Amino acid sequence: MSEEIILDIKDLKTSFELDDFEVKAVDGVSFKLPKGKTIGIVGESGSGKSITALSILRLLEKPGRIKGGEINFKGEDLTKMSDKRIRDIRGNEISMIFQEPMTSLNPVYTVGQQIRETLKVHQGLGKESGTKKGVELLKLVGIPSPEQRINQYPHELSGGMRQRVMIAMALACNPDLLIADEPTTALDVTIQAQILELINDLQKDLGMSVLMITHDMGVVAETCDYVAVMYGGKVVEYQDVKSLFKNPKHPYTVGLLNSIPRHDIDVEELEPIKGNVPNASEMPKGCRFAPRCPFATDLCVEELPTLDEQSDGGEVRCWIYTDRWNGDPEVKVNAKERTT
Amino acid sequence: MFQFIVRRLIQLIPVLLGVTILVFSLMHLSPGNPAHIIAGENAPASTVEQIENRLGLNDPIITQYFRFVKDAALLDFGNSWRTSLPVSSELWPKFWVTFELSIYSTIFSIFLGLFAGIISAVRQYSFADISIMLVALFGLSMPNFWLGLMLMQWFSIQLGWLPPTGWGTPQQIILPVITLGTMGAAVIARMTRSSMLDVISQDYIRTARAKGLKEKVVIYRHALKNALIPVVTVVGLQFGSLLAGSVLTESVFAINGMGKLIVDRILARDFPVVQASVLIIAVVFVFVNLIVDISYKFLNKRIKLD
Ligand SMILES: Nc1ncnc2c1ncn2[C@@H]1O[C@H](COP(=O)(O)OP(=O)(O)OP(=O)(O)O)[C@@H](O)[C@H]1O
Ligand code: SF4
Ligand SMILES: [Mg+2]
């Protein structure tokens, strides 16, 4: 990857410090996002995707706290900057849209009031120019009769419309990076497709970089250039999207891909991953995935593998891809094929 | 909005009629012949009869009721049975004293309660929060006449800063307002805190922060307006209990208001004055509730107009 990197996260650690113990929700996450590209963060519920995203904009709720690592955005470390500087970046250079369109807009203010607010803080636009820009933005995200909609309250709009408003609001200041935390999960399938297409188109037109959080491999296939697969607060695999679907390396990624319906495979072969994501407060000390991994060995249970770059440029955190692998040699042979 | 207000005003008519029926029955169900009370224990039968005729006490009850409503609508409540003065002229000066006391106390409760509640919520579990909630609990459980006596003891008698009795000058207003307003402030502070805490954890607050707004703007523009919705209801109810609480406060500070008047005249069985006082309090209460409804509607755009 020789492109310009807009977001470079290194060894990010975010914890919730409760009275008697610490929940390590994000535990050493690293990945890079090249400018103008989309990275997908995938993983089952509770793997730390949202907390990673919230850490970027420092929007964590108490008692959540970034405990270590760097989040470099255009050369500045977001974790170290002043509150004032991060406020200038929020909604301006980095915008975020959330999973819950029904509750993410303030019910007591009109759509227009809420969009104008962003334009006012970051661009100093007054009521009149703000309204004009607001109407343009609503038109851009495909809201019919924007002149009327802008004066409506959120409860007068459907879920899909509200998510469009959220997107319009996020785009108000032409951000360099858009973080979308499961933007379509709460919507009907048809609306889901429309919203994803909208984000895709806007990204191309505006040249934004996008961080797309999802647990849906279908969404990844449609929208992403790169993928970071998360498990138990760690990145277990980082790949460009083509290699990921063609040559998934980590046993967890393979499991995720096997658990989605595909046209080219017989439905009967569909097998969800057995077991559950471990609770963030009682993580296994070795490989986080060991309790559910069909190939797990003593080594896996005892020691945590590192995230290592492979010969094809992807990165994977699994003992199979190391010299120390002491399990079934057959597995190792299959693995070799995947990295070349 | 205008339509909404007009409709609410029309809806008040049956409520107000109900109030007049209750108040009217109060006099007619209570034992004793009014004419006897007016004329005195030993008055001759002819005098009593004369009074009965003058007051129309022998007319059918319905006629009497309509006469009462008609007169009341014109703010004519007849004459006192004790002093023979028109009830209105006795009542209005005292009504204003009590009204002022209630309004000032309400304003005091709202400002102190909101301020304390917001601080508590924003700094949940901090020293400030815990202290405020302790004081609020204290304010809530303390009978207001006792608080009044303590304040008077300390600020008037020990320190000599403020006059112990009376009403009118700014110095005289301070202690009664604190006495009467403290409980309301405590209730509002607790309500504001819990309502703010609820709102602060909502998704739209995170959205507001994600837009790059200052924390102050997030709290006061985005959170407070939502948090006020349940608080407004409490303020309305609080005003009702203020009118009742003022009776005690007025006795403690020897304020010549409606509370004192009502107590005196109940003991003296001066029904026209009692009747008029109760009616006025009920009407004020009904209108305060109307104002609460309107502000509720104003704050919460999700309420349908009908
Ligand atoms: N407020 C909190 N207090 C304590 N622990 C928390 C809190 N929020 C999140 N966590 C922990 O952080 C872990 C990761 O949460 P996160 O919201 O990032 O998951 P996610 O990958 O976004 O899942 P989902 O797909 O359900 O959104 C959770 O397992 C949870 O234990
Ligand atoms: S390290 Fe071991 S347990 Fe973990 S994914 Fe690889 S093979 Fe499975
Ligand atoms: Mg999430």
Q: How many alpha or pi helices of chain B? A: 12
Structural class of chain A: alpha/beta
Overall 3D shape of chain A = elongated
Hetero ligands: adenosine-5'-triphosphate, iron/sulfur cluster, magnesium ion
Tally of helical runs of chain A: 12
Helix content of chain A: 25-40%
What do the pLDDT scores of chain A average to?
A: 90
Overall mean pLDDT of chain B: 88
Structural class of chain B: mainly alpha
The succession of helices and strands of chain A, N to C, reads: EEEHEEHEHHHHEHEHEEHHHEEH
Strand coverage percent of chain A: 15-25%
- Spans of chain A of at least 5 consecutive residues whose pLDDT stays below 50 are none
Beta-strand segment tally of chain B: 0
Total strand segments of chain A: 12
Terminal Cα separation of chain A, in Å?
17 Å
Instruction: Give unreliable regions of chain B as ranges.
Output: none
Describe the fold and architecture.
The complex is a heterodimer of chains A (340) and B (306). The model of chain A has no long low-confidence stretch (mean pLDDT 90). Chain A has 340 residues and is an alpha/beta fold. Helices cover 34% and strands 22% of the residues of chain A. With 306 residues, chain B is mainly alpha-helical. Chain B folds into 2 domains: 2-87, no CATH class; 90-299, MetI-like (MetI-like fold), CATH 1.10.3720. Chain A binds chain B through residues 57, 59, 61, 87-92, 95-96, 98, 100, 103-109, 117-118, 121-122, 153, 155, 166, 169, and chain B through 201-204, 206-214, 222, 225-226, 299-302. Bound molecules: adenosine-5'-triphosphate, iron/sulfur cluster (SF4) and magnesium ion.
What are the SSEs and their pairings?
The complex is a heterodimer of chains A (340) and B (306).
Chain A (H helix, E strand, L loop, with lengths): L4 E13 L4 E13 L3 E5 L6 H8 L7 E10 L2 E2 L5 H7 L4 E4 L13 H13 L3 H14 L5 H4 L9 H13 L5 E5 L7 H18 L2 E6 L2 H7 L2 E6 L2 E7 H6 L4 H8 L39 H5 L5 E2 L5 E2 L12 H11 L1
Parallel strand pairs in A: 3-8, 3-9, 6-7, 7-8
Antiparallel strand pairs in A: 1-2, 1-4, 4-5, 9-10, 10-12, 11-12
Chain B lengths: L1 H28 L4 H6 L5 H11 L5 H13 L13 H36 L4 H15 L2 H15 L11 H31 L2 H8 L4 H38 L5 H10 L3 H29 L7
The structure holds adenosine-5'-triphosphate (ATP), iron/sulfur cluster and magnesium ion (MG).
